[in-house]
Each structure stands twice: as structure tokens, then as C-alpha cells.
Amino acid sequence: MAGSSSSRKPDDDEIEISIFGPGYGECILLHLGFGYWAAIDSCPAFNSSEPAALHYLSSIGVDPECIRLILATHWHDDHIRGISDIFLAAKNSKFYCSAALRSQEFTDLVILSKKLMTDDPGTNEFNKVMRILGERGGRQRKASIGPEFVIAGQVMARRDQPLPFELHALSPSSASLTLAFNEIKSCLENTTAGKTVRQRTKKRIVAQEPNHVAIALWLKLGDRAVLLGSDLEESANPSTGWTVIADSLVRPSGRADVFKIAHHGSETAHQPRVWEEMLEDESIAAVTPFINGRLQIPSESDVRRILSCTRRAYITSPVKTKRTRWANKTVEKTINDTVLSIYEFPQSTGQIRLRRKHSSSNGAANWNVELLGSACELHLAHK
Amino acid sequence: MLDSSIKVESAAIVLLGSFNPKIFHPAWLASENMVTKQESESAEISVVHPEVTAFTMNKIQYEITRDRFVIQTTYSPSFNVMKDLVLGMFGLLHYTPVHALGLNREFHFLLESEDAWHRLGHKVAPKDIWEGILEKPGTRKLIVEGVRSDGREGCVRIEFAPSARIHPGLFFAINDHFQLASKNAASGCQEMLDLVRHEWGASIERSKAAAFKFLERT
Amino acid sequence: MTSRSSALESPSDMFYQSSNEAGLFDSELPASSTLEETRRPLLYLEKLAPKYKLPVGTNNSPSPGATYDNGMVLELQDSAPPLVFPKPLPPQLDHFQPLQSWEGVVNNVEEHAFSTTLRDRLKKSPDQVAEFPLEEVSLVDRELVHPGAIFYWDIGYSEDKTGQRIRASLIKFRRLPAWTTREIENAKRDASKMRENLGWE
Predict the structure, then answer these.
(1) Measured on CA atoms in the order B42, B47, B51, B52, is the torsion positive or negative?
(2) Best label site of A54, A99, B123, C136, fewest CB within 10 Å?
(3) Mean per-residue pLDDT for A76-91?
């Protein structure tokens, strides 16, 4: 790959948005100019346990210590696998997460899952992050150890020079926080108490409804903007989800010309007002698929809906499943006799990379879109 | 190919420490949800006594004396069940002092021919040195011990012998032995639990790989 | 040859001897003994009662002067109390030839099926996402099928004691005892310490 354009690191005055989505999980890497990188969520690189973010930075010759900001938008395990490895490598970074996790019950859950006699990717990643924070904290005042807790309306990071940017959190709303606190509390109660055998047997802690606390972001780059939707879903509750963001009086003004579509393009994350009020016409839309056996998002109807909003839509990998070819025919026969369905856990090399010079004029047309690995145009997602 | 030459394989977890054999009863395991009621009721109990307890339950053999706890099975789907049982039992009996842990594997390999069997025996223990001392010398048993490569206290001991179960067969046993720091009653068995939790899977595979490597070399 | 008492410091000697040297054990039995009787140590002890008796209120450490015949029968050299510990040895052992083995986590449960993520225990194949009918789960394990529950799935050939070979697909749910009050209190204490360390409290 040496010498090819895909292995060129961005120029100092070049903004980059790289979106990785292997089919389970996603990661967004931002270059905000002059070697300032930010990582949002994490997923493994193809055929590797190394985070995609670190793998990519290594391929373009960027030191991971250039990562200054790491955000876990929520604690669903598909979004944070390997995030502690990024945090460990990025020695100068600050770690951000939802304010919903600043609760006694959540840390109790994290510690309990560490003591569980099995791997638990979601809470284990947080456990490792907190350990790293504690180790780094020895050199700092306790108040500044972190993590930094994020709530709607907060400006997470900003810079005026040399290339100005502001990173705003659009969620979680206070109503979402309350829901999240209650969900974590009941998760802890279900884990530790119970009358039936099923309730009492130790098992992995599974977040049931984490998406209403996902952190959606508004990245202001001068007079332009990018909307990163995370997994935030719309809900019937007007105090949560996208409606409350669209209604918000404190959200930054303006329209974005790039939209990382929320929750893998699903219907449950669609709010027409986002397209009508927060995005430019024909803005660039990027989707990461979610493929979990027979559950595959975006569906064909999701694809049609997105394409009706913009024609410039891309996906990090096609929405398709793959079956393993078992060398042993007895194994294959027995599997087929036993299961209703079986597919390989999705892995792909897909990356959507957007780059533009900071000084270039407004509009989606000025972004250079590269589809690397298995990434493709969205209309080909189900072909 | 080597997988199909395994005719018998077993795994065992052996603890040295201080135990109360009477506690370990199928009914106790069922009451703590570590086995089902049906499994405990169908257990074959040999003895439950303050000095020794022995029973077999669901293809797993349990043998406990005052200073030794052994759980073993020849049924490979039960290998991880055994690990869970140890974690479960000693998670509850966390105060039990345990000062040594053995994660053990045994294999009986069927060799392709009697010639191959003899060749293996000669390669591992050449017989020339016995000329004039013994008539028709044959290898009865060979034990070799090495230090641990992970820096922990303990050793890895391998025993090699003609199989007493199959012919022509090779018996190959690996004792993955950990000497624990906990030596007094106050320290309990947390170190053992952590080792079983983190090392069991790797030890199982390591031992099998070692057996296969040995066979390939001979 | 080293003294057996020091060799028994290795935790696995008792086991080593049993599964390979069945013939030797058999030859130690009284002539009238059947293999079945060897499965019942107490009965065996009764037959040899004049010579041996179970110690009461002593620990089982072998006395320094004792020697062991393959770790099974203690021959007295002095009047120290013996421990007779015969190892029952069935004529045919349970055997399973594994072909594929996974550890799975339940993601979702519906009325008649549950979806899972499977991890190859030998890491020889990619992770899988699979959906199983609930009928594949033993009745006694059905109550454990719940999001987050962990299970083992083994495919292979099972041979019973008669040597009958059966192709098998075995699903077994992990059973770990519930969190105890002590574990929960310890976890809460550790969590509190962590929050304090991070300046949250």
C-alpha cells in the first residue's frame, strides 16, 4: 500500500472523516487539521483484534498519540470493542462518554462484570478505560482525571487556531438520562437479585435499550458542519431521540453537508425533520450496516428511503451474509440439522473516507469521497 | 489426522490444600444450582465421609480427601463444565486454603502398527545403553519435567508410557502444575480461582498441542 | 527411585496411576473381588478390615515412612493410620471425539427460538451468528435460556461404555452460582474505590 493515495495521510489543512463499519460495530476517525485526531467509538479491523482506528492510522503513518479525543457514544458492545486499546495508545487523549454512565450503578455493573467468569466486551472495555484513567491520574489532580461526561448542549472540544472547529453534543437529553439511569439500575438489580434459577445464574450483562442515550454530535468546521448520528433512535417520547434535538433552541445553527446516518439507517432512527432542517440538499450520507444473522439493517426499504433524501449515499460494506464452508462434512450436516440459521459474524474492510481542504468552499460537492475496501454506493448495498 | 488417533482422553483439575470432604455432595451442588436436581439424583455415590468423598455424576468423577480435591472426566464436552464446577464450588468455599493446582490431561493414542509403537519407544529411550545389562529392554514409563515458560512457580511434567488400554498405543500425560503463593489458612483460594478462570482453556489446548508435537517428532 | 511421598506432592499422581495401570490395580484385589466391588471403596475396606481401618480425626497426609503401590494402596511400614483409596476403573470409558466446539452467548429469545453469537473455542473458524430452536436445549436447561446466558455447543462422535458410536450435537448451558452477598458487597466496595480514585466521589 506504500505510495498509493489510500495510504497518504491528510495534509495539515485537510479535514478527514473516515467511517469504518464491518457489519457489526462502527468507528469514526476525524482529522481536524494539523495532526489533531478524534476517535468516535471503536470496532475491530478486518481479521484482527486490533481496533480499526489504530490499524488505519498505522497504515497512513500517523502516530496514535495524535488522537486527542476519544468518545464512546454509548455502551453497546458493538460500538466500543477495542476502545480501551485506542485510549492506551493515545496517551494525550481525553476520554468522553455519556453522562448516563456517571452513576454508582454503572460502576457497580462494570466491577461485577469484571468478576464474572467470562468475557463481557461492553463493560470490560469500560473497566479497562477506568483502570487506564486511574493509572494516568496519579500524575494529575483528581478532579481532572475523567472521563468527561457529556450531555446535550455541551461543547466537548473547540479550537480557534490554526483550523477552527467546535464539537457539540446534541444528546443525551435530560429525559434520556433519567431513562438510562433507570435502565442501568434495573440491569444491576436483574444481575444481582432474583428468585428463579434463571435470574440467579451468573450471566453476561446485556444492555437492553442503550440507544436512547447515544451521543449524537454536531461538528462545526468554520461555517460548515457535519452531523454524526451514532445509534440515536427516534422514540415516541418527544423528550428523547431526534425530535428533541430538532426542537432544541440551543443546538448550533446551520446545516451540515455530511451526515453519518443514525442506527445503521434503520426506520427507528429516521426523523424527516433532520433532513429538512439540519442538512443541506444532497448532503453526503454515510451508513454502517448492522448484520446479525437474519437481522440486517439497512433493509432494502431503508435504502430506498435514504436515497429519496439524497443521492450521494454510501455504505461501508454491502448488506449480505456469508456462510462458512466447513471442511468436515459431518460438522456441516450436524450444524444444518441443528440450527434454524447460521451466518458468519460480519467482517469487512469497508471504509468511507471523506477529505477536503479546510479552505474550500461550502457544499457537499467539495468533499472528496473515497470508497475503500468493501465500501460501496448505497444503492448497491443489497445487490 | 492425529485427532482421530486419540482413543481415550481425559482432563482433571487437582487441588492440594485443606478440604472438608463431607461438604462435597451432589445434593449440595444441586442446591447451589451448579448441577440440576436430576443430575444429582442420578449420581453414583461411592462414599461420603469426613475423610473421603467419592462419586460420579454426569460423566465427571469427584474425589476429595482432607488434603486433595480431584475432579476428572474422559468426556471432552464436560471439560469446561468441570472448570465451571471448580469455579462455582470454590467461589462459595472461597476461604478454603489451596496451595497447589494441577491442570492435567491424559491421552491414549492408537499408533498405526506395532512397529511404529516399538520405533517410538526406541526413539524416546534408546536401548543401546542397556546392552549387556538387560535382556530385551523395553520402556515401561518415562517422566520428564520442565520449568514453566510463563514465569509462574511450578512445573510441567510429562509422562509417557505404553498404553495399558489400547494396543499398540501410547499413553501421554501432562501435569500442568502451579505452585501457589497462598500457603496459610487465611489466604483462601482466590489465586487458584483466578488461575483456573484464566488458564484452563489455554492449558487444555497447550497440553494437546504438546502431545501432537511429540507424536509428530517421533 | 524417589520416595512416593515426595512424588505425591505433585497434585496429579493419584490420577496418573489410575487410568493407565488398570491391570495392576486388578491384581491387588482379593481373589473373590469383582470389578463392581472396586467401585465401592467401603466394601473393599471391609474385606481388608483386619489389616486396615479408616483413620478418624486425622488428616490424610501420608506418614513419612509410608510407601505407595501406584498411589493406591498404602502398605504399612509402621503403625501410622493408612488410607486406602482404590480408584474404580470401568472397563470402557466415556469418550467423545470432538469435531467442532463453540462457546455461545444468547442475544435474544423468542417463543420457539433463540439467537446467539458463537465463538469457536479453538479459534479455527470465524465467529458465527446462529438461531437455534428451543427444542435443541435440554428441558432442564430451558430455564437458563435468557439474553446474556452462556452455553457450550459441541459436535462430534460420542461413544458409550459399550462402544456404541453416536453422532452428537450437545448444547449445555453454563451454571454458575448466583452472586453472593459477599461478592456484591465486595464489588460495590471496589466500585466505590474506583470512583474515589477517579475523583467522582
Answers:
(1) negative
(2) B123
(3) 90
Return the closest-CA partner of residue B176 out of B142, B143, B199.
B199
Hey, what's the cell of B29? 451442588
Question: Do C170 and C120 meet the contact criterion of CB atoms below 8 Å apart?
Answer: no
B87 touches chain A (CB under 8 A): yes
- A253 in reach of chain B (CB within 8 A): no
Grid cell of A351 as nine digits: 471504509
Which of 189-228 (A) contact B at CB < 8 A? 197, 200-201
| pLDDT, tens digit, 9 for 90 and up, residues A148-175 | 999 999 999 999 988 999 999 999 888 8
Asked if A110 and A127 count as a contact pair (C-beta separation under 8 A), the reply is yes
Full-model pTM: 0.79
Task: Flag residues of chain C having pLDDT under 70.
Answer: 1-93, 201
C96 vs B12: CB contact, 8 Å cut-off? no
Say whether C12 and B102 touch across the interface (CB within 8 A).
yes
Distance, CA of B62 to CA of B43 (rounded, Å): 11
Pairing of strands C150-159, A256-260: unpaired
Which residues of B fall within a CB distance of 8 Å from C103?
Answer: 80
Which residues in chain A have their CB less than 8 angstroms from residue C114's CB?
none
Dist. CA B4–CA B107, nearest whole Å: 12
Using DSSP's 3-state secondary structure scheme, residue A95 falls into: strand
Chains contacting chain C through 3 or more C-beta pairs under 8 A: A, B
* Chain A hits for C166, Cβ within 8 Å: none
> Comparing C-alpha atoms, which of B153, A324, A247, A233 is closest to residue C102?
A324
Residue B165's region, left for phi above 0, alpha for psi from -120 to 50, else beta, is: alpha
Tens of pLDDT along B40-98? 999 999 999 899 999 999 999 999 999 999 999 999 999 999 999 999 999 889 899 99
- Convert the pLDDT of each residue in A206-264 to its tens digit: 655 657 778 999 999 988 999 999 999 887 777 888 988 998 888 898 999 999 999 99
How many Cβ contacts (< 8 angstroms) between chains A and C?
148
Q: Which fold has domain C95-173?
A: OB fold (Dihydrolipoamide Acetyltransferase, E2P) (2.40.50)
Domain ranges of chain B: 2-12+101-217
Residues of B in contact with C54 (CB under 8 A): 49, 51-52
- Measure the CA–CA gap between A111 and C22, rounded to whole angstroms: 48
Nearest to A200 among B33, B84, B87 (CB): B33
Q: Which of B116, B179, B107 is nearest to B147 (CA)?
A: B179
User: Is the model more confident about A101 or about A143?
Assistant: A101
Nearest-CA distance C125 → chain B (Å): 16
B197: chain A residues, CB-CB within 8 Å: 117
Mean pLDDT over each residue of chain A, to the nearest integer: 87
CA distance B10 to B204: 10
What are φ and ψ of residue B99, in 5° steps?
-115, -5
Domain ranges of chain C: 95-173
Q: Which residue has the cell 457529556?
A: A150
Asked if A334 and C115 come within 8 Å (Cβ–Cβ), the reply is no
- Residue A199 has a pLDDT of 58
pLDDT score of A27 more than 50: yes
DSSP annotation string for C156-199: EEEE-TT--EEEEEEEEE---PPPPHHHHHHHHHHHHHHHHHTT
Cβ neighbours of A149 in C, within 8 Å: none
When comparing pLDDT for A283 and A322, which is higher?
A283
Burial of B4 (0-12, 13-18, 19+ CB in 10 A): exposed
Q: Which of residues 130-149 of B touch C (CB under 8 A)?
A: none
Query: How does strand A313-315 pair with strand A295-297?
Result: unpaired
So what's the ipTM on this one? 0.85
